[in-house]
């Protein structure tokens, strides 16, 4: 079963001090080589790592994000994915950072995921369609 990993889960995979790390590691293992994310998620992961309460220095964060390539597949996002996400948030009358969760959902759709793993399930359920949304537990 193809599984899409949101940036919140990628951060948990990379942060040894995250209380969600064991659950993120288990989710990646359970994906059995069928886990993937999008290029967009890499930028979000870097942003989060470098702005945590105990931030990861930029060079280290870049190295961590680059290291994801060996753990999870990364798909490039075409313009059509962004256009679909923007159209949907607009249709729902939503504003602000929620657009990034919509981008993740439309990326998961484009990659034909059966499931999305995230730490923000309520937002993802607004855009996931038939894709199962799983909240990463601690």
Overview of the molecule:
This protein has 138 residues and is an alpha/beta fold. It has a single domain, classed as Rossmann fold (3-Layer(aba) Sandwich). Helix content is 50%, strand content 13%. It has a five-stranded parallel sheet with strand order 3-2-1-4-5. Helix 7 (121-125) links the parallel strand 4 (115-118) and strand 5. Helix 1 (7-14) packs across helix 2, helix 1 (7-14) crosses helix 3 and helix 3 (39-49) packs antiparallel against helix 4 (58-66). It is globular and about 40 Å long. The mean pLDDT is 95.
Draw up the topology in text.
Elements: E1 3-5, H1 7-14, H2 21-30, E2 35-38, H3 39-49, H4 58-66, E3 73-75, H5 79-91, H6 98-110, E4 115-118, H7 121-125, E5 132-135
Parallel strand pairs: 1-2, 1-4, 2-3, 4-5
Question: How would you concisely characterize the structure shown here?
Answer:
This protein is of the alpha/beta class and about 140 residues long.
Largest sheet: 5 strands, parallel
Number-wise, the strands total: 5
Question: CA-to-CA gap between the ends?
Answer: 23 Å
* Beta-strand proportion: 5-15%
Number of helices, counting only DSSP H or I runs of 4 residues or more: 7
Q: Tell me the Rg in angstroms.
A: 14 Å
Instruction: Give the helix proportion (percent range).
Output: 40-55%
The CATH class assignment is Alpha Beta
CATH superfamily membership = 5'-nuclease
Strand order of the largest sheet: 3-2-1-4-5
